[in-house]
Amino acid sequence: MVARWELRKLRPQEKNLGWAHQAFHVPDDVKKHWSRNISEGKVVETEWNEKFAAYENKYKEDATELKPIISDELPVDWEKALPMDYMTPAIRLAALSKSRVIYVMTHDSIGLREDGPTHQPIEHISSFRTMPNILMLRPADGNETAGAYRVAILNTKASESNHRKPSWLTQSNRNTYSLPYSTITSGTSMHMLH
User: What is the DSSP letter of 172?
Assistant: First the structure.
């Protein structure tokens, strides 16, 4: 799916190129040009199938392992081998050792943008919010972001080690506007650290 902002960028280019076709329309000459790939592809596929059959006869065990990889089949219980998240161990260790660390995480949103679902890490904020000894900050606008940085920096300078903890600033992937009456100090305060 093409994002709306991308379509706006394409309009001037289409005009310059004389592309007066409707959206998602493929002209006949383009179809004809690319349709030759069908017959060429059938020849290549036949050659591949013959080579793979010969390989399978010669290397049965390897072919058995290779087939699911080629067909995108996942092995049984594949999900049990996955780590929750590649940064989790480091963040957990920082929380346990009360390290003076500020993590700045971006793209938090339940909405999709042009980057797609790979940039929609909605599960991270809840999992790290439940992790002990993490200061979780989720500012809503620019003023609160400045305030959140202030709190995070003061948190790293906390004199008592029992008040010091890693800070986690979660930023949205959305364009946000300043909220009415929003200031650097209105959304955050040091009482959050105690």
Answer: E
